[in-house]
Amino acid sequence: MLASPVVLSDLQSVLPPSARVNARGHLEIGGCDAVDLAAEHGTPLVVYDAASIRDQARAFRDALAATGVGGEVVYASKAYFGRAALALIAAEGLAVDVASGGELAAALRAGVPAERVHVHGNNKGPEEIAAALDAGVGTVVVDNHHELDELERQCSGRGHTQDILLRITPGVQAETHHRIATGQVDSKFGFPLAQGAAHAAVRHARETPHLRLRGLHVHLGSQLMDLDVFPAAADVMARFVAEVGPDGLDVMDMGGGLGIAYTPDRRPPSPGTFVDVVAGAVVDAWTARGLPVPRVTIEPGRAIVGRAGVHLYRVGAIKDVPGVRTYAAVDGGMSDLLRPMLYDAVYSPLVAGRADAEATAHYRLVGKHCETGDVLVDDAHLPQLERGDLVCMPATGAYGVSMASNYNGQPRPAVVFAEDGRARLVTRRETLDDVFAREL
Ligand code: LLP
After folding, report:
1. How would DSSP label each residue in 311-354?
2. For ligand 1, is residue 331 a contact (CB within 6 Å)?
3. Which of 9, 145, 249, 417 is geometrically suited to a Cys-Cys bond with 50, CB 3.0 to 4.6 A?
4. What is the pTM of this model?
5. What is the pLDDT of residues 233-247, one digit of tens each?
6. Helix or strand or coil: residue 185?
7. Could you tell which of 299, 402, 403 is best to mutate to test the pocket of ligand 1, judged by most ligand atoms within 8 Å of the CB?
8. Which domains does the chain carry?
9. Using only C-alpha atoms, what is the Rg of the chain?
10. Residues marked as catalytic
11. How far away, in angstroms, is 301 Cα from ligand 1 center?
């Protein structure tokens, strides 16, 4: 293995935009010294650059506004549904997508106006539907016929008419990890186009008195670096709209999926490029068929919060397996960052206390969990580690804490928002009492 130097300048593109090395040689985020944050709040610790979240939200919002197609930017809260983040994103004028009753509660508790909430889910329970209707949500994205029936039953009972979109499976294959590809025919999500199922769904929705069909929805996959799949999906959807008739179908929601860089060699499209490609694809496909161009909605999650967040871990045991490799274990792992295990995701760590030190050694960076697969970075190129070093994992802001668990009874980490040299604790660390609070 060649030992080329890895210093902060190489990692700038995967770290939050405000990241820099301060005079003490420490990593700084949002003007806050990462070593000091870890000392104050303990580890593992999740630190968000609040300005980065705000800037990404604005970038999507402004880019969509500039296209003139109308429509909404809907933040996919599954990426991270912490209250501070949701409040900040809603304050920028974004709507919020929730995929469960839990995420609905998160959005409402964060003060997101109910009419700006879009309710997703492939198996919404009757209580979840009731909670959404009680709150007065703006849009329900309907996944299946059971849900059309249940929604109609509950809406007619309330004398309420609900705006809905129908989720369609367009049958296009996005290039990404198979566990996060969604638009293909063989999917649990949405009404398939095959054999008229989606056509029947549109008829069903149009005949249902308390549901107002406003448009269609697709989501193609996540962590997409190549946007070619969007024109392909738009074409399929325009053909479908031509077949069922555009009546009332004023919204085309193209879902989320824009990828981010986890390693510095990747260059994801910008929010502006994503919006232009997606909106342009819809405009072109609808225009080509002489259809009235709908409003275009997008649902970015990862691209809003992913780069903003980092995990900070403390190095504990360092173990040399002679002739094989050196293991360095940190005080978290698959309980707070599951992506490497679930999607073979590769991250680019650095040592926060020596942020511009040259990487001269290789480690398998592992967690503390009782499981061989608890590997955070298979081959981490780092400066020589010492017990007590603070390791920073960049680009963990999306699907990090939102997928955290209590495996091995591990309390979930605290979350801090850093901005302009001030750090705000937004989620305290779980205590063991929290972990065991449900035991009877
Ligand atoms: N809209 C819908 C309907 C979705 O299902 C998703 C993600 C999004 C929007 C947001 O996609 P994004 O812009 O974040 O790619 N846990 C996986 C990602 C699962 C994504 C599920 N759906 C990961 O860590 O890679």
Report:
1. EEEEEEEEEEETTTEEEEEES--TTT--HHHHH------EEGGG
2. no
3. 417
4. 0.97
5. 999 999 999 999 999
6. coil
7. 299
8. 6-42+309-435 (2.40.37.10), 51-305 (3.20.20.10)
9. 23
10. 370
11. 6
Contact call for residues 365 and 349 (beta carbons, < 8 A): yes
Q: Rounded to an integer, what distance in angstroms lies between the CA atom of residue 308 and that of residue 15?
A: 7
Residues pairing with 164 in the sheet: 140, 213
Closest CA to 9 of 25, 20, 24: 20
Q: What is the DSSP string of 85-136?
A: HHHHHHHTT-EEEE-SHHHHHHHHHTT--GGGEEE--SS--HHHHHHHHHHT
pLDDT in tens, 77-105: 999 999 999 999 999 999 999 999 999 99
Residue type, 27: L
Do the Cβ atoms of 182 and 233 come closer than 8 Å? no
Q: Is the CB of 79 under 6 A from ligand 1?
A: yes
How big is the chain, counted in residues?
440
What distance in angstroms lies between residue 177's CA and the mean position of ligand 1's atoms?
12
Cβ–ligand 1 contact at 256 (below 6 Å): yes
Q: Which atom of ligand 1 is nearest to the CA of 399?
A: 24
